[in-house]
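Feature request disguised as a bug: please show the residue count (404) next to Integrase in the output. Example input:
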Amino acid sequence: MALTDTAIRKAKPTDKPIKLTDGSGLYLLLNPNGSRWWRFDYRYLGKRKTLSMGTYPDTGLADARAKRDDARKLLAAGVDPGEHRKATKAAGEERAANSFEVVAREWLAKRDWVTAYSVKVTAWLENDVFPWIGKRPVAELAAPDFLRVARRIEERGAIESAHRIMQNCGQVMRYAIATGRADRNPVADLKGALPAAPERHHAAITDTKAIGGLLRAMDGYMGGFVTRCALRLAPLVFVRPGELRHAEWEEIDLNAAEWNIPGEKMKMGEPHLVPLSDQALTILRELHPLTGHGRYVFPGGRSPKQPMSNNAINAALRRMGFDKEAMTGHGFRAMARTVLDETLHFRPDYIEHQLAHAVRDPNGRAYNRTAYLPERKKMMQAWADYLDGLRLNDNAESIVRKAQ
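Example output, currently without the count:
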């Protein structure tokens, strides 16, 4: 006889389990503790099996019958409903394990970033990406999915943030490819789809007389020795501030006078080689007895296991009286680019390559990290000598003639 909701509610537990049969293999198992479990008994390939259909009243009578009918349809099609459920569950778990959010958080955990930057990128993803595509499997995401995410950011006027967040999304997708969870990176297809980010100009001193005054002020900096060394090295190597802060001793070959920066630390993702002038080597050899036993060339003041603060260089410049409208840590790059080109007249491709910009030859091929290395070594030494001359007497004309 088929069950009714009234009969189910009136049934009382006993000291033994009771089966309340509904028909076609479905029954409600009433346990001594009062719990009510739906069960479906069936036979598959000659074996008796039982499938759980949920608990009452969370799963009502009508829902239990619908589940039974679905299971019987599978049986009629030659499919074991129990194995089908396991496969469906496994597929759902795999889908969840390969979701964009799961992959992104795994990627984030492997980044060797300072805490402040890690928090910033995590917040970008949590606020602007995960709510929209976080639960989607990375293998199913397409360029329009990421474009919609970027458009939402763009609509609030944060165009630069949209570009940065898409860059992070692209890095997550490349990690998904590397770990076998996606076949391609659809973010790469967004090239040209977003409006160009507004150009940012970093304050820089490019007047030769003013450069001499800046260098002398840096020599007289009264702050910590590590920061002072970073300040003195910054104009000599003119790398990006983040690349300078994260410099590691294992990347620096004092004998070969080279600093080899791995690709994962570079903005363009390609390894970069910085020839070290005699002046740069002197600074590094002065610093080595203090920090050479650790990982970072310029460790943080609070923990030697972390690089120096991302604000250390700019804060030192402010203490010396150079406000953010006059000079920034990034400004050493503009200083070198301008003076090496306009005053010392080095070839622009040498300069651009040393700045780790995307320099290409006439055939469109990207130069490798050692391209024009002998010429760049001469340029870096001439630049260091030129800065020494400015520091000592500001006689730019004579220094230019000597450098050339």
